[in-house]
Fold this protein.
Amino acid sequence: MKAIGKIDWAFSAGRIPFKNNGEEPLFMSHDKIAVLNTSEENAIVELLIFYEDQKPVGTYEILVRAKRLRKIRFNDLIAPEAVQLERNYSCLIQTNVPVVIQFSRMNTGANSNAEMSTIAFPVEPEN
Amino acid sequence: MKAIGKIDWAFSAGRIPFKNNGEEPLFMSHDKIAVLNTSEENAIVELLIFYEDQKPVGTYEILVRAKRLRKIRFNDLIAPEAVQLERNYSCLIQTNVPVVIQFSRMNTGANSNAEMSTIAFPVEPEN
Amino acid sequence: MKAIGKIDWAFSAGRIPFKNNGEEPLFMSHDKIAVLNTSEENAIVELLIFYEDQKPVGTYEILVRAKRLRKIRFNDLIAPEAVQLERNYSCLIQTNVPVVIQFSRMNTGANSNAEMSTIAFPVEPEN
Amino acid sequence: MKAIGKIDWAFSAGRIPFKNNGEEPLFMSHDKIAVLNTSEENAIVELLIFYEDQKPVGTYEILVRAKRLRKIRFNDLIAPEAVQLERNYSCLIQTNVPVVIQFSRMNTGANSNAEMSTIAFPVEPEN
């Protein structure tokens, strides 16, 4: 199967909630991306995190194996440094092979278990 | 009417919740896609399911009649094998005629009836 | 200002909830589209409704004035016939001038006031 | 790093809820956009607000610094005039450098803390 999707993606409205009332780890509040790699090659996913008041942090490198899905929780990113809780952030995602990326948030800190999800923005390469 | 939409689609953040407190079948927790076929021809929809830790499963073949909508619940897919509950999955969707696809989740297992929905990602054919 | 957006749009996962506990009309359960017409010309918006088990119904014609927004509730569509409650439907939207369309649902029939919203799918004209 | 994204964006389903039961300012009901500027240049973001029954208001000018994210709450826009509460509005967003924009709403006035979010619509420049 040929690779499907795009190599560059972004989303801008990241924020990891601090409070949560869910059980660990499934219902813990989190931001995550789901990366689908349909290609025959492993994908090296590079994340760059942008903030409101400091320079970008990264890159975070993550492997998504050939013909596999991987969910990446921003809570789990620790090197070069942890993504800070309760701070707005954006994320630029660049890969070596085309992938499809969906961004989701589960917020269990309020009266409800709110979930929202949107396909990330496929950044067109500017040729 | 000419066919509108795209022939290849994907979403990456699938997960069928196990717990639910809704009445069957309307409020049962589920993942689903709504496939709109505006064309004069029946659409053969082929689904391929990707997982985190095993090779892809499929294809699942589903008919969407000409000038009709069809909602496909991932809970209902049984051949070649059922989509497993509480496991992350992604889905590649390929058809013979252009369609429009929206992905939704209803989660009734928590304190609330959370619903989220997003247009799936239209995969551009790489010519 | 030049017109921005697209002339053809679609979404597939329509469904007007029957039950609701909200006050009329603001918190009544509903499906709606918000149509933004930035152009200098009035837009004639034509809706065609697709169902699972009968032929398409329409068109419904709605005016969106120049440089104005209009929210269209599917509950309010009555001619040629009302959109049926608790039935899945899809919608094809065609206009004479470019517009931007967002699809939303408010569901007040459950324990929570769930709201979901997504930009509709801009159907590329096939030249 | 080269700038990524688009220079023109829009969303149509804006509405700032009036009632809210959250603590200020984090959980107050609001509409917001998150603007990611990956470029080396500051971005001047110009917002134009459209209503159902009056002519467009704007432009509102907002600076998003180079290599930074900025969240803009529509509740906070005051000049040339405040965006009115409980009224439907749409927004056209134009910048001098490519950016990525996500639109979100937090509604804390109901029984739940409903959150919804979608990537805004990237308006293709018509060449």
Chain D has one domain: 6-98. The CA atoms of residues 15 and 87 of chain D lie 6 Å apart.
